[in-house]
Amino acid sequence: MPCATRADKMGFKYRSLYLGGWHSKYRYAWQCEVNTSKVHIENKPHDCEFLTAPLGEKNCDYEPAVGTLRWATSTTGQPIASYDEGKTWSTFTPESNVRVPKYPTVEEVYVFWQKKEK
Questions:
Q1: Does residue 63 form part of some domain?
Q2: I need a labelling partner for 14 at 20 to 30 A (CA). Which of 31, 52, 92, 117 fits?
Q3: Helix (H, G, I), strand (E, B) or coil at 41
Q4: CA 94, CA 85: separation in Å to the nearest integer?
Q5: Residues 19-54 pLDDT 10s
Q6: How many domains, in total, are found in the chain?
Q7: Planar angle of CA 93, 98, 102, nearest 5 degrees
Q8: The 3-state secondary structure of 43-66, one letter per residue
C-alpha cells in the first residue's frame, strides 16, 4: 500500500486480517487520510469470471493496484507533485484558492485492477 496505514501507525500486527479484501472508498480514505471524494476506484473487470462467455474457468483474476497523487512545496517554494509514490517530482500551478502543503502529502488515491494469470 502506498500510504502509511493507520493500522501500521497503531502497530496493528495483523493488518491483512484487518484490511484485506476490503476495497472501498472508505478504506482508502481512512488509510491515506484523505476525503472520500479524493479516492477514485475503477470498476473491476468481469472477463475472468466463470459465468462470463465463454463459460468456464479463465485461469485469471484481477488484483487491486493503488497509486497516489502527492504534492508538496519544494525547497525553493514551488508547488511540486508526484504521481509515482514520491520517486520523481515536477512543478505545477495550483488554482489560486488552493494551499499546497510544505511536506509531501497524499492528495488523491487511485485504485485500478491488474490482470493476473493463474
A1: yes
A2: 117
A3: strand
A4: 19
A5: 445 778 888 898 899 999 999 999 989 888 888 888
A6: 1
A7: 80
A8: CCCCCCCCCCCCCCCCCEEEEEEE
113 located within any domain = yes
Question: How many CB atoms are closer than 10 A to CB 54?
Answer: 5
- The single-letter DSSP state of residue 101 is -
**Is 19 within the bounds of a domain?**
no
| Interval 67-107: pLDDT, tens | 999 999 999 999 999 999 899 999 999 999 999 999 999 99
Alpha-carbon distance 26 to 79, whole Å? Answer: 28
Angle at CA of residue 31, ends 48 and 101, nearest 5° = 125
For the chain, give the number of residues: 118
Instruction: Judge if the upstream peptide bond of residue 2 is cis by omega within 30 degrees of 0.
Output: no
Decide if 67 is inside a domain: yes
